[in-house]
């Protein structure tokens, strides 16, 4: 009998004061290269979601994050992996994000029009992440209005 290995992934939604979120484009050599995603990566053994996020965002973007707010956990099955994605929203960090793995970055406002988020500069977005953007736009609006 084959066992399904579920991979925990910490996903970081950096949100600036203008309500924009930071997307990164997956570099050549990784599965699904060219797709846009939120920065983040796999938990290493013994790490919490926040610890993994802090490490990954330092490795990928060169920043040090403050607190991260738990938002959603979703499961997704790709041909290459079965993942459990832990989405965290981050409002505070030090340093300016830059693509340390040569990945393109783009700050994107999540504008909902006719029930979908228009994000023409960050297409295609990873299939597990894309359907969450309408609700994420809502969550960000609420966080910024507090
Ligand atoms: N970072 C990130 N990963 C996502 C998102 N959505 C999504 O399905 N994933 C999936 O979660 C997994 C994340 O793995 P990763 O390749 O980024 O992991 P990593 O940074 O540790 O990479 P590495 O193994 O090359 O060191 C991939 O299977 C990716 O397809 C997202 O928005 N952000
Ligand atoms: Mg990654």
TrEMBL record:
Enzyme class, spelled out: hydrolase
CDD domains (alphabetical): NUDIX_MutT_NudA_like (cd03425)
Assigned EC number: 3.6.1.55
Keyword list, A-Z: DNA damage, DNA repair, DNA replication, Hydrolase, Magnesium, Metal-binding, Mutator protein
UniProt key word Metal-binding: yes
Reactions listed under catalytic activity: 8-oxo-dGTP + H2O = 8-oxo-dGMP + diphosphate + H(+); 8-oxo-GTP + H2O = 8-oxo-GMP + diphosphate + H(+)
Top-level taxon: Bacteria
Record InterPro entries: Mutator_MutT (IPR003561), MutT-like (IPR047127), Nudix_hydrolase (IPR020476), NUDIX_hydrolase-like_dom_sf (IPR015797), NUDIX_hydrolase_CS (IPR020084), NUDIX_hydrolase_dom (IPR000086)
UniProt keyword Glycosyltransferase present: no
GO molecular function, one term: 8-oxo-7,8-dihydrodeoxyguanosine triphosphate pyrophosphatase activity
Cofactor: Mg(2+)
PANTHER family in UniProt: 8-OXO-DGTP DIPHOSPHATASE, NUDIX HYDROLASE FAMILY PROTEIN
This protein's name: 8-oxo-dGTP diphosphatase
Organism, as annotated: Formosimonas limnophila
């Amino acid at each position: 009998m084959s066992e399904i290995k579920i991979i925990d992934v910490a996903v970081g939604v950096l949100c600036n004061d203008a309500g924009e979120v930071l997307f990164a484009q997956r570099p050549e050599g990784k599965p699904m290269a060219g797709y846009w995603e939120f920065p983040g990566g796999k938990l290493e053994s013994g790490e919490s979601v926040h610890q993994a996020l802090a490490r990954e965002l330092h490795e990928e973007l060169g920043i040090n994050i403050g607190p991260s707010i738990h938002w959603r956990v979703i499961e997704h099955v790709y041909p290459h992996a079965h993942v459990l994605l832990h989405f965290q929203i981050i409002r505070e960090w030090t340093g300016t994000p830059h693509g340390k793995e040569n990945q393109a970055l783009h700050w994107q406002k999540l504008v909902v029009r006719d029930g979908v988020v228009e994000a023409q500069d960050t297409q295609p977005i990873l299939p597990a992440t894309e359907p969450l953007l309408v609700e994420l736009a809502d969550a960000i609006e609420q966080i910024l209005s507090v």
